[in-house]
Amino acid sequence: MPISLKEFFEENPDIEIVIYAGKGGLGKTTFSAATAYWMAKNGKKVLCFSTDPQASLSDIFERDLFGKGEQEIIENLFVVEIDADKEIREYQEEIRRKIKEMYRMEEIPPEIDEYIKSAAAEPAMHECATYDAMAELVASGRYDLYVFDMPPFGHGVRMISMAQILDAWIDKIDETRRKAAEYTQMVQALKGSTIAESEDAILNELSEIRRKLDTFRDILIDPHRTAFFMVLIPEKMAILDTKRALEMFNKLGIKLSGILVNQVYPPELLDRPDVGEFLRNRIQMQQQYMKIIWDEFGDYIRAVCPMFDREPKGLDMIAKVAEHIFEKPWMGRERFEELVR
Ligand SMILES: Nc1ncnc2c1ncn2[C@@H]1O[C@H](COP(=O)(O)OP(=O)(O)O)[C@@H](O)[C@H]1O
Ligand SMILES: [Mg+2]
User: If you compute the radius of gyration of the chain from its CA atoms, what whole number of angstroms results?
Assistant: First the structure.
């Protein structure tokens, strides 16, 4: 038997960040909420963080959380749903304010403002703002555990290469800064004064941002501090996808902490006379895929979670999911052995 989810956390007490990766619709948000809930119930101060514009945590916690900052759900369990567009707007405003302050400008000259706007229009900006918000939260050190519920972009693994995108973005800011400096120098030269001092302040600020992001990346690639889990369902496409993701993890030099199999029909249902042929066939099919899953990913499996008869929403259902993945991780295992023998 591989180690269970609970054993994983017992063996890795220094985990600060949990990230569920995988395609959409498999159960990332559900397991993020359940993990955050279970950890909070076990005495950790937890922040569950989402950047999904679908407002997925609001949905599962049944509270309007979007863009409202950190909200306490139960003791020790906090949830935040970031509005990335708002973050970007605030960030732009901040840059404008700083440039005005540092170069003692009344108004941002139009050519500088163009620079600020074009930086914000970069497609990667949304992800950058998200990454920056995450780095900021982790750097604050106000929580014992951060659970990041990722939108389904590139398996969530892209988080790591994000550091490079951010570097490019910082360069863009730096460019803006230089443009502003040139402009001001021109003006100041006419007036006969200098701006060396404010130049330093901006450079310091940029290296401060870089330091924060580097620290965050170091935590993300440390398997003792960050756990990456993948969610898988017993279907062919999902299995192929997980194989590819595993290769991607290997290439990036990141250790996958485990795989959770979700939406598995309890094979015990086969014993019930009222279960019709349709469901029987589905259960049989799933169990064939479970065999492949155990063969291919055996040591990575941390839990198997049943398909529920309704969508797991609300605290009672989150508690139930948590109980399954932490306390009864091997649902259907014995029966499976019997079925596929
Ligand atoms: N074990 C389960 N049983 C029944 N429904 C589930 C289960 N896990 C997830 N769901 C439902 O499936 C949908 C997708 O799950 P979600 O956690 O939002 O996935 P993701 O975040 O990966 O897109 C949601 O409607 C969720 O309520
Ligand atoms: Mg989701």
Answer: 24
Per residue in 15-52, is it b (16+ CB within 10 Å) or e — as a string? bbbbbbbbbeebbbbbbbbbbbbbbbbeebebbbbbbb
CATH for 273: 3.40.50.300
Per residue in 168-196, pLDDT tens?
A: 666 766 777 777 777 777 777 766 655 55
Give the chain's domain count.
1
* Residue 263 CB less than 6 A away from ligand 1: yes
User: Which residues form the domain of 75?
Assistant: 1-341
Burial class (CB in 10 A: 0-12, 13-18, 19+), 295: exposed
Distance 313 CA to ligand 1 centre (A): 9
Q: Whose CA is nearest to atom 15 of ligand 1?
A: 27
Which amino acid, 159? M
What is the token pair recorded at 152?
A: 């389904």
Helix (H, G, I), strand (E, B) or coil at 302: strand
56 lines ligand 1 (CB under 6 A): yes
pLDDT tens column, 103-124:
777 888 887 788 777 777 766 6
What angle is formed at CA 142 by the lines to CA 137 and CA 146, rounded to 5 degrees? 55
